[in-house]
Amino acid sequence: MSRPETARTLALRVLARVAATDAYLNVVLDGVLDEFRPKDVRDAALATELAYGTVRRQLALDAWIAQFSDRKLSALEDRVLAGLRIGVYQLKYLRVPTHAAVGDTVEALKQLGLARAAGFVNAILRKVAVAAELPVPAGADELARLALEESHPDWLVRRWARQLGLPKTKALLAADNTSPAVVVRVNTTKTTRDALLADWTAQGIRATPTRHSPVGLTLEQPGRVEDLLGYREGLFQVQDEAAQLVGLYAQVPAGARVLDACAAPGGKACHLAQTHDVVAVDLHAHKLPKLRAEAERLGLGAKIETRAVDVSRPLPEDLGDFDVVLVDAPCSGLGTLRRHPELRYRRTAEDFASLTNMQRQILEACQAVVRPGGLLVYAVCSMDSSEGAEQAELFLRSHPDFTSEPPTGLGSAPTEQGYLRTLPGPDGLDGFFAARLRKLY
Predict the structure, then answer these.
(1) pLDDT-based confidence at 31, cuts 50/70/90?
(2) Fewest C-beta in 10 Å: which of 58, 70, 101, 375?
(3) Same domain, 17 and 36
């Protein structure tokens, strides 16, 4: 009979698969936990912490390892490197005692058939355990040091420092390395925020109202969201507060015909469908069944029509035109690094040219189906100015028939020059940008 998986063996499997496949960390983690089903919820929680924490701190962890390794890290087997990173993360960030961090990590490698690496890993971890300071290269300036300490690529830290200034950049980097809260949006077609909060409180589920969104709740210790009271009944949907604000910022007028042009996975489409009929389209047809299933769970299936459409090209004539078009455009995703820490290592400075070009193509195709007097709402889960304000301003300069028209009565939502802009550091939200553009004629 095989031994049950420990938290460390689960984390090793997750990190090795992410490295081998370039898959999203959250998807791989969910798959591994479903496959091995740890009996103790504490093992699942620790595996999650080890996997996410190790990826968030990867650059610093590698600096510790490289200081004492006689082999290039790129030459190490994926699971061995993952084991080293997990061990160092426990030592330096979780403050796990040396005997436990080293012994349990080495044992996890043995359990996965890597006993041959035990001595190598044991030796490096014990040297790291007694090393006092992170090995910052000699001559590193403040930004280089910051990049290593917070495990963000140097080019990205310098880019954000130019765009946001150093204080906001420091806050942003620190926030990226924290675990985000689980936030839900209340389905107002079935209940109210106060009613759901009261029901949860009665069940011992601790939650607090979101600061900016009037329909959000932040869970303190959520566990499996699918097991919460009201999930099966469709009383809520998981959605970060910043994403909720996009739907509120759009301020869609009553009776409007709405197009969600890049709809998957469907959070914003379902939000809009609580009050309007929505045509939800996406380039990837295989993503639409999940969107439809979520709409059905929320009782909104009749309010959403789905189609596979490439919105970077002229839209099919039979779609018609719309009073409101939401373009939640493909982007760098750098506003979601709390949730997808692996993206920081996959993006390059060169990516922005292709991403912004695609965004312009999508905006050009979608503006053509906005009725005169209608709204085009552009949004990205990024704080980068090239994908945000610069993109909106470029569109306005080339389309004199559109003007920026901020919504009224948005409360305390973070705005800048009429645009919605949230930052993980100062605002405690995912990083988003949105522009609300009115077609004049």
Answers:
(1) very high
(2) 70
(3) yes
